[in-house]
Design a protein that fits this description.
mainly alpha, about 80 residues, 3 helices
Length: about 80
């Protein structure tokens, strides 16, 4: 669980930096893939029967980050 969350956080940091430097979305496409792959893995674990609150809060953290990424891309003109 923590591995996936760390991977998503690292990918998001690279994406934010690239957007801040005015890079094109194609230049950080692999990081977008890593972010959403990590989100998918966390969602699978959170939706399994018997999952604990750690998975739930990790998924909530990813949802907040995804919303932040969406807003960042909209405001930077890359919606």
């Amino acid at each position: 669980m923590l591995v996936e969350l760390a991977a998503a956080n690292a990918a998001l940091a690279v994406i934010k930096e690239a957007i801040g430097h005015g890079k094109d979305i194609a230049e950080f496409g692999s990081q977008l893939g890593q972010f959403f792959s990590a989100k998918s893995e966390i969602a699978k674990k959170a939706n399994q029967k018997g999952s604990d609150s750690e998975e739930f809060w990790a998924l909530e953290s990813i949802r907040v980050q995804e919303e932040e990424l969406k807003e960042l891309m909209i405001y930077q003109g890359r919606a």
